[in-house]
Amino acid sequence: MEQTGGRRRPTIKDVAAVAGVSRGTVSRVLNGGHWVSPEALTAVQAAIRSTGYAANRHARSLVTGRANSVAFLLTEPHQLLFEDPNFSVLLRGAADALAKRDMPLLLMVAGTAEERRRVTDQRRTTRRRDPPHHPRPPRLDLT
To answer: Keyword set for this entry (predicted)?
Structure first.
């Protein structure tokens, strides 16, 4: 069991014991609450609050095979990252939007042909990666 600052970190098993339900019920609640009675849902939510349970992102990543992070690949010359104000606005906006979803933004700079080759090679050989995400452009209110 994992220790954090001298205290053991609460697990799904702990939440289940406090709520008086199975670990499977706790897992179903954590994954959207499907097939869980309203009483069990309320009990698990109260147990999560009382135990201070928080999902371990690293463990979830290992189980799901998803990183739940977004990489921003800059393929322009390095100096543009610091000289062109559009890049900082774009990165700040992306970081702010991802922060609302509690997701990190990874910045990868590949301004030369060799760096782009390395990124491409790494992408081919990396086993765990999320599928590409193509967000919709922001909606503009022109009224």
So the answer is: DNA-binding, Transcription, Transcription regulation
Say which residue the tokens 């491409």 belong to: 120
82 and 51 housed in the same domain: no
pLDDT in tens, 24-82: 999 999 988 889 999 999 999 999 999 999 988 777 777 777 788 888 888 888 888 88
CA Rg, the chain, in Å?
21
**Residue 70 burial class via C-beta count within 10 angstroms: exposed 0-12, middle 13-18, buried 19 and up:** middle
Domain range for 21:
3-55
* CATH code of the domain in which 19 resides: 1.10.260.40
Mean pLDDT taken over the chain: 83
Render the burial of 40-58: b for 16+ CB within 10 Å, e for the rest: bbebbeebbeebebeeeee
Phi (first) and psi of residue 20, to 5 degrees: 75, 35
Give the per-residue pLDDT at 85.
86
* Spatial distance between the Cα atoms of 69 and 83, rounded to a whole number of angstroms: 26
Is residue 35 within 8 Å of 58, Cβ to Cβ? no
* Tokens matching residue 93: 């906006």
